[in-house]
Amino acid sequence: MQNTDCIGLTPHQVQAFITDGFVKIENAFSADLARQCRDELWADIGLSPDEPRNWIQPVVRVGHKASPPFIEAANTPSLHRAYDQLVGEDRWLAPKALGTFPIRFPSPEPPGDDGWHVDMSFDDHDPDFMEWRANVKSSGRALLMLFLFSDVGPDDAPTRIRKASHATIARELLPCGEAGVTLRQLSAHGYASTEDCEVELATGAAGTVYLCHPFLVHAAQPHRGERPRFMAQPPLLPRREFDPALPPSPVQVAIRQACGLTF
């Protein structure tokens, strides 16, 4: 899939993705789309932006949204071009929904879901999420994506990102082969191997999207601001398994460089 109506990522941004494990795209979708999506989410959770006295829980979750504003936000020309550049043309599936949505509210209470982790990519039909798996090929996931539907500042529970942690995780997955490891196995040591990584906060205006390597270690945090944070954290799904016969995409280049593999 090729788009000729937008410039896309610069070579510097693509290299930053390979090195740091993520790239920030500002104005990836419009502020008006973000507002439409927030309005739907407010209705879904039965709360109001004008009644903060009812914001009792530190986090309220909404599953997947497939209404037109969400699909449009995930499929702008600039994002399609970036998907091509990072994953490879015709190697990803256009999102038909977005989710999940951990909507975070200002609260002195701990959210209970703010541990460091890597999102898993596939399962063996096991209902236990801790048994979901990831392998060095990143089967089942082309990207981790963070869609900001509200303005997110440093106090607004921005996702914490451990820069370059994807390289460490790739090396840990390499000896595990096709089967990979479960979330329980990968998280057994609390991701101590990445604790020295510099931490970046996923801040930005509504309409910002972070495109992240599937192996990037990240975490939530408590909300210490004033306005709720609306964000989606969907995967970008691959069209098929990564094909070693094709030129490696930046996602694959990052894995191969981390593991010291030849091209």
Question: Can you walk through the features of this model?
Answer:
The two termini are 24 Å apart. The protein has helices spanning 11-20, 31-45, 68-74, 77-87, 165-173, 183-186, 250-259; strands at residues 22-25, 59-62, 101-104, 133-134, 143-148, 160-162, 181-182, 199-201, 209-212, 218-219, 231-232, 235-236. The model is unreliable at 1-5 (pLDDT under 50). The strands form four sheets. Strands 1, 5, 9, 11 and 12 form a five-stranded antiparallel beta sheet that branches. A three-stranded antiparallel beta sheet has the order 8-6-10, with no helix packed on it. The chain has seven helices and twelve strands. Helix 2 crosses helix 3 (68-74) and helix 5 (165-173) crosses helix 7 (250-259). The protein has a single domain (11-259), classed as B-lactam Antibiotic, Isopenicillin N Synthase, Chain (Jelly Rolls, Sandwich), CATH 2.60.120. With 263 residues, it is of the alpha+beta class. It is globular.
List the helices and strands and how they pair.
Elements: H1 11-20, E1 22-25, H2 31-45, E2 59-62, H3 68-74, H4 77-87, E3 101-104, E4 133-134, E5 143-148, E6 160-162, H5 165-173, E7 181-182, H6 183-186, E8 199-201, E9 209-212, E10 218-219, E11 231-232, E12 235-236, H7 250-259
Antiparallel strand pairs: 1-9, 2-3, 4-7, 5-9, 5-11, 5-12, 6-8, 6-10
